Amino acid sequence: MLVYRIPREPSTPRIAVWRKLRKYGVFQLADGVVVLPASPRTREQFDWVAEEVVEAGGQAEVWTAAPTTQEQRDRMRTKLSADRGTEYDEITAAAEAARSLPDPAGRAKKLTQLRRRLREIDKRTFFPTAQRDSAEAALRELAAGRPDAAPERARTEAR
What we know:
The protein is an alpha+beta fold.
């Protein structure tokens, strides 16, 4: 758990901290209180952010904490899973849209970008989601160069 307070001005360090925490996929308990499932990696991430907060003139402490009820655990798991699920859904939609790009080079470039984004999301995924499998399948289809299936469906439905 990271407990921090950072001055409002200048806003640049505050925004940098917020973006970094968002990148790590934190669960926000309250203003200035965020948690992640315990691991050496998440502890190190929180230590880095705490250093940044202090360097910006704020206060920060890293704590080891655990939910005391199953309801608290479930709430954190549900929120973190939903957040990552939404991100995986975005990759799926982008991959499906990229399949209709006319230029193979454009599809390849988009595939590279989406694979990178998938790896970034995987780094902050603490609980498996079904959406991850869908995103992976959509990227495989994009990599295979399969054309967009929408025109085929439209022809079938018109019959």
